[in-house]
Amino acid sequence: MKKNKNQGGLEGKISNPFKKLRNHIGKKVRVDYIEYGSLCSEESTLRNVEDYVNIEIESCGIPFVGYGSAIQRIIGKRGNVLYENPNISNDYDVRSSEKIEDIVSLTFGQNIADKKRKERIKFEKDFEKRMKKSDEHAKTKVNNYLQQGKSLVKRDVLYEWELYVKKNTQDGYSAAVVDASLKVMEALSDGKTPKKALDLSYELGLTVAMAGFMASTISHFHPRGEEFRKYWNKKFGLKDAKSKGVVNPAILIVRLK
Predict the structure, then answer these.
(1) Of 216, 223, 159, 162, the residue nearest 190 (C-alpha)
(2) Which of 87, 147, 163, 214 is most buried, with most CB under 10 Å away?
(3) Based on the domain organization, do 16 and 104 belong to the same domain?
(4) Which residues pair with 39 in a beta bridge?
(5) Domain presence at residue 136
(6) Are residue 84 and residue 16 in the same domain, yes or no?
(7) What's the structural domain count of the chain?
(8) Which residues of the chain have pLDDT under 70?
(9) 85 and 148 part of one domain
(10) Is 25 contained in some domain?
(11) Cβ-proximal residues to 28 (8 Å cutoff; 6+ apart), any chain
């Protein structure tokens, strides 16, 4: 008899490794998982189970097998094992899509791994198309950004603004930073406080790193840039008025007790 391609790992031992978990939705569980090579444990209420993808507890979602993170076992309130994956080592820190899919194959079977691989490849192709379109659109914004800058940028840095705009309209990511910077600078020129001006950027879909680049742009080019810089730095805990530079919120500093 030909073996089912989808049998193997947990699938070979359990007809449905998620059925037992779904029976415990709304109940307390303990989740033992590895995150970037460190063993973690959470005791919380199980909120949802997405087959082959992740579980959701009160505080977060945890993948069965994911980027840098994977579940080793899930224990019920009475100490009974609801789910266990022997393929997840104590130093799990897998960040390669191909390697993640290999572990998915060992855990849930080749059919599931093949499905995930097809979904990933499709997403990557679609994402590449969107980025190419976004990059092409960014290049059409040069003249508009230069024109807007004439009334918002300090006179002595207008030449720098021209260089900055031309350099940062080669891709959609950088152009989004320029666009957000202009919106906040326009609000500052209209007399809004740094706080109210910055509030306008929160719905623009900026990443933390992009917001940091935006803050640097405003601080350097706008007539009220120094006022904005001090507000920005104070927002992130830097209260020294004599400090220089702009806080980069994308840098996480971990302090040991």
Answers:
(1) 223
(2) 214
(3) yes
(4) 34
(5) no
(6) yes
(7) 2
(8) 1-15, 240-242, 251-257
(9) no
(10) yes
(11) 43, 44, 45, 46, 77
Are both 213 and 149 inside the same structural domain?
yes
pLDDT digit string, tens, across residues 185-212: 999 999 999 999 999 998 888 888 999 9
**Which residue do the tokens 């791994």 mark?**
113
Three-class SS of the chain: CCCCCCCCHHHHHCCCCCHHHHCCCCCEEEEEEEECCEEEEEEEEEEEEECCCEEEECCCEEECECCCEEEEEEECCCCCEEEECCCCCCCCCCCCHHHHHHHHHHHHCHHHHHHHHHHHHHHHHHHHHHHHHHHHHHHHHHHHHHHHHHHHCCHHHHHHHHHHHHHCCCCHHHHHHHHHHHHHHHHHHCCCCHHHHHHCCCCCCCCHHHHHHHHHHHHHHCCCHHHHHHHHHHHCCCCCCCCCCCCCCCCCCCCCC
pLDDT of 240: 63
Range of the domain at 145: 141-235
Q: Which residues pair with 81 in a beta bridge?
A: 75
- Among candidates 207, 209, 205, 198, which has minimal Cα distance to 250? 209
* Residues 170 and 215 reside in one and the same domain: yes
Asked if residue 241 is part of any domain, the answer here is no
Q: Quick one: 145 and 73 in the same domain?
A: no
The answer on 95 and 156 residing in a single domain is no
Average pLDDT, the chain: 88
Question: Given this model, what pLDDT does residue 242 score?
Answer: 64
Predicted local confidence at residue 194, as pLDDT: 95
Q: Which residues in 35-69 are b (16+ Cβ under 10 Å) and which e? A: eeeeeeeeebebeebeebebbbbeeeebbbbbeeb
